[in-house]
Amino acid sequence: MKKTVVLGASDNPSRYSYKAINRLKQHGHEVVPVGIKNATVEGLQIITDKTQKVDDVDTVTLYVGPQNQPVWYDYIIGLKPKRIIFNPGTENRELEQLAEDNGIEALHHCTLVMLASSTY
Questions:
Q1: From CA 19, how far away is CA 11, in angstroms rounded?
Q2: Which of 9, 61, 72, 111 is the most exposed, having the fewest neighbouring CB atoms within 10 Å of its CB?
Q3: By C-alpha distance, which of 45, 101, 91, 47 is closest to 69?
Q4: Quick check: helix, strand or coil at residue 49?
Q5: Nearest to 31 by CA among 2, 68, 56
Q6: What SS3 state is found at 16?
């Protein structure tokens, strides 16, 4: 299964990041929620410290708008994920280029759709 960092994690059940955490867990993936709010989602503590190391990350799935992403660039690239999923509304050419420059695949897709269609 693919260890996935959900960047922009929220404890609000109406948010897509919350739904993604739930569905990723249902599909058996290890989930690491990362965000700015100290809270718990699906029994997992949201990491708010950008210096906290997470090893063996397969995927970073973004739920942070492009205007708020620059402060996360070093953190995302430092995770050394195999891919970054730019969910709708998170597209950012600058971060895509950084990813490509570091050998990280950049996908424009929806994590929830990928899980529902078995393409995750």
A1: 10
A2: 72
A3: 91
A4: coil
A5: 2
A6: helix
Q: Which pLDDT value is given to residue 95?
A: 98
Name the residue with tokens 């994690």.
9
Neighbours of 52 (CB within 10 A): 10
Q: How many residues does the chain have?
A: 120
Q: Is 83 helix (H, G, I), strand (E, B) or coil?
A: strand
Three-point CA angle 36, 47, 81, nearest 5°: 105
- Distance linking the first and last C-alpha atoms of the chain: 10
| Alpha-carbon gap, residue 9 to 93, rounded angstroms | 22
**Residue 8, Ramachandran bin (φ over 0: left; ψ between -120 and 50: alpha; else beta):** left
pTM: 0.96
Per the structure block, which two tokens stand in for 108?
């424009």
How is the chain split among helix, strand and coil, in percent rounded to 5?
30, 20, 45
Chunked mean pLDDT (size 10), the chain, 120 residues: 96 98 97 97 95 95 98 97 98 98 98 97
Token pair listed for 105? 């695949």
